[in-house]
Every structure is written in C-alpha cells, then in structure tokens.
Amino acid sequence: MDEQKRPVMRRPLSFVRRSNNLPPRRQRAWDAALGHELLDIPHGERDTAVADGFRIDWDAEFGRRAHRVLEIGTGSGEAVVHAAHQNPDTDFIAVEVYRPGVAQLASRLRREGLTNVRIACVDAVELIDKLMPRGTVDELWVFFPDPWHKTKHHKRRLVQEPFIDRVARLLPEGGLWRLATDWSGYAAQMRDLISADARFTNLHAGERSGEESPLTAVRHQGLEKQDPLDWDEALDEVGGWAPRFDGRVLTDFEAKAHEAGRRIFDLTFRREG
After folding, report:
1. Would you place residue 8 in the very low, low, confident or very high pLDDT band (cuts 50, 70, 90)?
2. Out of 2, 31, 146, 227, which one is annotated catalytic?
3. CA 243 to chain centre
4. Per-residue confidence band for 257, with pLDDT thresholds at 50, 70 and 90
5. Rounded to an integer, what distance in angstroms lies between the CA atom of residue 73 and that of residue 21?
6. Rounded to two decimals, what is the model's pTM?
C-alpha cells in the first residue's frame, strides 16, 4: 500500500463528547475566563487535541511553584472547587472535555475568587503527552472515570497499560496517584494493572481484603445487578483498597452511586524512583 494512503490507527478515546453548544450565558463565562482560569490551548486536528509545538510554563501560569494536582474528568468541578478552597497553597489543573461543564466551572471560579485552579478543555492524554514533562504535577486524581461497561468497550477505558506508562513518566518519585470508581470490575482492573507495575506501590496493599473488602460485598450480594456469587467465589483475597480520600468532597455523582446501592472503591499509589 502507498505510504501516503495507509490508514492511520487512532488511539481509542476514553470519552464521548456530548452536545457542546453553549447558551449565551455560558458562552460569556467561557469568553471571560479564556486566557485566565481557562487555558487558551490551540487545538490540533481534533478540537480536544493539543497543537504540536505549543508549550505552557506552569510555574509562570500560576505565578509560583506550589504543590500541584492534576484532576482528570473534572465535570462541573465540584471536587476541585472544594479542594481549592480547602488548600489555597496547592495549585490545581482541571481537565474536562465537556464545554458546558467547563464554562460552569470557569464561572464559579471567577465568582468565588479562586486563583489556584486552571482548566484545560482537552483530551487528558494529549495534555500529558505534549504539555506535561515529568515533575509538572505532584499528584494525579482520576475520580469516577467512565467505566465503559460493555466488554467490547473496555478498550476505551482510560486506565490501561499505555496510560499507566504515561503516569509513570509524569509523576516524580514520591508522587501520588489517587483513583476512585463505583464499578467493581473497573476497580479490580485498575488495582491489578497498576499493582503489577514495579514503578508504583499500592499504599494500602492487602488492606480491606476478604470479608472486609467492598469487592467481596459486591460479588456476594449482587450489588451491580449481576447474580450473587457463592461466598468462596466472591471472596476478594487481594484487597488493597484505600480508605475514602478525605480530600474528595461528596459530589452529586457519587451521591447517586450510593443511592443506587453501588460501592465506592478508592486506590492510592505512590510513584517509586
């Protein structure tokens, strides 16, 4: 096949863009925040891609070098706004591709006078690959990523081996990776994949296993609408689940998961040297 005609194999995206049309009020909030709370990032071939050659000096962007957190999948920003209020000495980079949610967050940041948050409306993988050399952030938060329930869609999950490689390049020695999900299959996948990588240590390895494991409860009680398993089959002997991260405010999304009877799985990993 002619080299110029060879099809390009695209990376499966971990998100689907919903309607991105902004009503006038949200558009005004977007325009007011662009270049301030909302990073003005030129896009590449997709509107969620980052243009080649573009760079950000993060210390200059925040006007300091403070402890820095990257949150992927910010939504409308409930968690990051709460964290920014509680931790004024920490800077936050919030990544979200849904434009109405970004505009809502930008408006709230301006209204509440929060200056330690910047929003990137781009694909998180593009942001990490093109704008974040190692040491840019000290912590990574991935809370409630899309679980892509159907087996045929599991390839679209964010936390896969290629993404783990990216995080290993991003975080400095001692950097923390915090994750949370309300779906047991994805929780087990994240735990097992990251734990198998020698560059990361599960800070709660072996904890909350057996009868105390939320995974055991989900399997045994059939909490995700699957048939309950016998006790021996349901038993999670690995554990490794972190206590709930007290820096994560209870969002509407998480509250709905509780109301639906789902369990929340927290994980915390440290980047080793």
Report:
1. very low
2. 146
3. 18
4. confident
5. 19
6. 0.90
Region 61-82: mean pLDDT is 96
Residue 6: is it exposed, middle or buried by C-beta count within 10 angstroms (0-12/13-18/19+)?
exposed
DSSP reduced 3-state for 184: helix
Token duo for residue 66: 């403070």
Condensed to tens digits (0 to 9), the pLDDT of residues 170-198 reads: 999 999 999 999 999 999 999 999 999 99
269 by DSSP, 3-state: which? strand
Cα–Cα distances (Å) from 164 to 14, 15, 178, 197, in that order, read 14, 17, 13, 8
pLDDT of residue 147: 81
| Phi and psi angles of residue 247, each rounded to the nearest 5 degrees, phi first | -85, 0
- Distance between CA 159 and CA 185 in Å, rounded? 12
Contact 70/139 with Cβ under 8 angstroms? Answer: yes
Q: Produce one character per residue of 45-80: b if its CB has 16 or more CB atoms within 10 Å, e if not.
A: eeebbbeeeeebebeeebeeebebbbbbbbbbbbbb
> Can you give the length of the chain in residues?
273
Q: Is 50 helix (H, G, I), strand (E, B) or coil?
A: strand
In angstroms, how far is the first alpha carbon of the chain from the final one?
A: 44
**Could you tell me where the beta strands, DSSP code E, fall in the chain?**
67-72, 90-95, 117-120, 139-143, 176-181, 200-202, 265-271
Tell me whether residue 165 is one of the annotated catalytic residues.
no
Q: Which amino acid is at 69?
A: V
Strands (E), 144-255: 176-181, 200-202
Is the pLDDT assigned to residue 102 strictly greater than 90? Answer: yes
Q: Which amino acid is at 96?
A: E
Contact 218, 245 (CB under 8 A): no
